[in-house]
Design goal:
The protein is α/β, with parallel strands linked by helices. It folds into 4 domains: about 130 residues, N-utilizing Substance Protein B Homolog, Chain A (Orthogonal Bundle); about 45 residues; about 55 residues, Alpha-Beta Plaits (2-Layer Sandwich); about 210 residues, Vaccinia Virus protein VP39 (Rossmann fold, 3-Layer(aba) Sandwich), CATH 3.40.50. It is built from 20 helices and 12 strands. Helix 5 packs antiparallel against helix 6 and helix 5 runs parallel beside helix 7.
Amino acid sequence: MTQAPGRRPQGKPYRRPQRDPVRILAFEALRAVGERDAYANLVLPGLLRKAEEKAVKENRTFDRRDAALATELVYGTLRRQGTYDAVIAACVDRPLREVDPPVLDVLALGTHQLLGTRIPSHAAVSATVDLARVVLGDGRSKFVNAVLRKVAAQDFDAWLAQVAPPYDEDPEDHLAVVHAHPRWVVSALWDALGGGRAGIEDLLAADNERPEVTLVARPGRATPAEIAGSLPDGSTEPGRWSPYALRLAEGGDPAAVDAVREGRAGVQDEGSQLVAAALAAAPLDGPDRRWLDGCAGPGGKAALLAALAAERGALLVAAEKQPHRARLVGRALAGNPGPYQVVVADGTRPVWVPGSFDRVLVDVPCTGLGALRRRPEARWRRRAEDVAGFGPLQRGLLAEALRAVRVGGIVAYATCSPHLAETRAVVDDILRGDQAPDAELIDARPLLPGVPVLGDGPDLQLWPHLHGTDAMYLALLRRTG
């Protein structure tokens, strides 16, 4: 019997797809990252707030477990994107560049649920196909279903054995696929770290771990002990290295901490705190009245420096080139117990009198390879040629910082990248060349007592796998003439 056109076979009624707010939110976050070059840590909080507000209007719940799952889906998918792309490529019959980006995002979300979470395979496939039906349409959802069923046929380790080249044949490409980093990033990190396979594997694995939420208690306004005492027992731990640090337990919300809402504390990686602490602790002959943060936006280090300067009666000038970032600096410094000034200024074209500062920090723009735990999408967005692009700016900022400081004063050159071209190469070029006043390196390591494995000196390098911090680099220079 011939079926009438447009009618479904009997026994197979149309089933509406389940609209899962968590997975729809995760898809929207990935689309923002892919289409607008947004950062997940900036776009995700707004999407979570909208989801909570919508749930209230519709008289349903969107609780912490939903928010935690959405966060895991977004960050887990972004961290492992390179590995998941290799797996998906093995399951489709065309180059990935010919697959529409929204379809790839749905496939990556499903692959992460299958290979990177404890969600049962049948539930992961079913939920992702429903998501595809909602955001892509019924036609393309069939493609998603077929691919994910192939992905589900093997576990993560089996897929790695299939898609990653053997280590002995190509160590860098093997590590790139297994640990989901671009090959050029693996090479750059390995050069900076040195050593054999174990160290680089530990570093790459640490980049794929969820970073802790660390608070900074701003001196003169709050202490870690005071903040911890205001929170439930077991919800905090002391910082590992910084005297100003306090770590929140997993799932802790900094917005729920009174001191953070009041500006007496902030969210700041412990590595950034140590950079400010080292500059403040560097020995100095003569006056210590004027400090400068030459690249102050968005204001985290500036707020800590201002508080440390206030303890000595010193003034901090916080300079930021971009007006909207300068406003963020102003908000971060509001309420500081001592004097400060926020100026919109380009650190390579300064408005201040040369030689007028005693301490200067330049935390220069960089590739951000030291913060891949926090911004996992950056590893896929950056290119090797970006490193050279930052070089002239980094050298210009350091040269002007040395002009800004008086003879005998201290400049801290910092960057959230361990790439040798952004760290020692910049400092060495300035010390050897004639772009800046004469200066000498001083040993920064003794200024961070108790912090191990800081390198051969006199500069220092922090590492996620060794210190639990971002991979911050710091060199301290004293102007000699």
